[in-house]
């Protein structure tokens, strides 16, 4: 893996090691938290998914019922009812308000419908079929109820989908990039520190060796001196200095010009 | 998360419609319709002589308007501008595909449901119904 060899460019010191360890702890905690968030979102997501599917199914039935109600109204009130309705449009009485719902830090929109002002075109179908028209209106109001619910579910679905993707991306980034990198850096710093320690140890050993050798030399020199000293003492007792005795011998060894034979 | 559109809390928003005449009439009866000062409606009636361009423009207008929270679109109309519906990915306004009288509802065509299927093809919820 390419991430295995990656590490941060840092100076291998004990302070940096401490900082890296702190960062690793932070990354681990963040990873755990994000994982929890992702799980919570996924749970919510699946619930919404189930609701969407069931609501979509019921939407089909409700739309069928409302279409049928409209057909009934048309049959009773006459075909021209639609022209009356189309002409009577002024401002919406049925509106939607949206509010936010918070799921693990993700804001989900929730729609709810409400009726603003009194219901207009009450005179529609005054001549005939008024009851059918009212029933038709009720059917469509019911349909709107379901559709608005479905709309909020669908919006939540899209929002959650994206939020989950982002969270998962973060979780994976922490798990596969940030944490290995920090771990590698820690390993690297530890290795470097060990190396330094070994080097130091070796240096100390070396110096110790030098010192030992120097002491040995000194003792050897002292011993030699003591020997010489004792030899001098012995020769002095004999009445001749050891140095002159040496000289005598060396003088004898030398060729003397004055000696004829 | 910066790219995610901000969801405002609004006190009142409209429901827009792109559908056949009967469906539109039904919802208008329920009180959804709105005509503003410039005689602009929040619905489009799709007839046999309505062009794809008109539906496209209406869709773009409704999804771009601030005061619309939900866009209801008949599935046959959505199929005509499928590329637009599929590429639409904002949370608000929500696009909702509804069945119409002449055209039976096909869940496989629904952009959101197909996404559900794509995401959870192995899950029983999404795969069980198709």
Automatic annotation (TrEMBL), chain A:
<dbReference type="InterPro" id="IPR002699">
    <property type="entry name" value="V_ATPase_D"/>
</dbReference>
<dbReference type="GO" id="GO:0046961">
    <property type="term" value="F:proton-transporting ATPase activity, rotational mechanism"/>
</dbReference>
<protein>
    <submittedName>
        <fullName>V-type proton ATPase subunit D</fullName>
    </submittedName>
</protein>
<dbReference type="Pfam" id="PF01813">
    <property type="entry name" value="ATP-synt_D"/>
</dbReference>
<keyword id="KW-0406">Ion transport</keyword>
<comment type="similarity">
    <text>Belongs to the V-ATPase D subunit family.</text>
</comment>
<keyword id="KW-0813">Transport</keyword>
From TrEMBL, chain B:
<dbReference type="GO" id="GO:0046961">
    <property type="term" value="F:proton-transporting ATPase activity, rotational mechanism"/>
</dbReference>
<dbReference type="InterPro" id="IPR005772">
    <property type="entry name" value="ATPase_V1-cplx_fsu_euk"/>
</dbReference>
<dbReference type="Pfam" id="PF01990">
    <property type="entry name" value="ATP-synt_F"/>
</dbReference>
<protein>
    <recommendedName>
        <fullName>V-type proton ATPase subunit F</fullName>
    </recommendedName>
</protein>
<comment type="subunit">
    <text>V-ATPase is a heteromultimeric enzyme made up of two complexes: the ATP-hydrolytic V1 complex and the proton translocation V0 complex.</text>
</comment>
<keyword id="KW-0813">Transport</keyword>
<comment type="function">
    <text>Subunit of the V1 complex of vacuolar(H+)-ATPase (V-ATPase), a multisubunit enzyme composed of a peripheral complex (V1) that hydrolyzes ATP and a membrane integral complex (V0) that translocates protons. V-ATPase is responsible for acidifying and maintaining the pH of intracellular compartments.</text>
</comment>
<keyword id="KW-0375">Hydrogen ion transport</keyword>
<keyword id="KW-0406">Ion transport</keyword>
<dbReference type="InterPro" id="IPR008218">
    <property type="entry name" value="ATPase_V1-cplx_f_g_su"/>
</dbReference>
<dbReference type="InterPro" id="IPR036906">
    <property type="entry name" value="ATPase_V1_fsu_sf"/>
</dbReference>
<comment type="similarity">
    <text>Belongs to the V-ATPase F subunit family.</text>
</comment>
<dbReference type="GO" id="GO:0033180">
    <property type="term" value="C:proton-transporting V-type ATPase, V1 domain"/>
</dbReference>
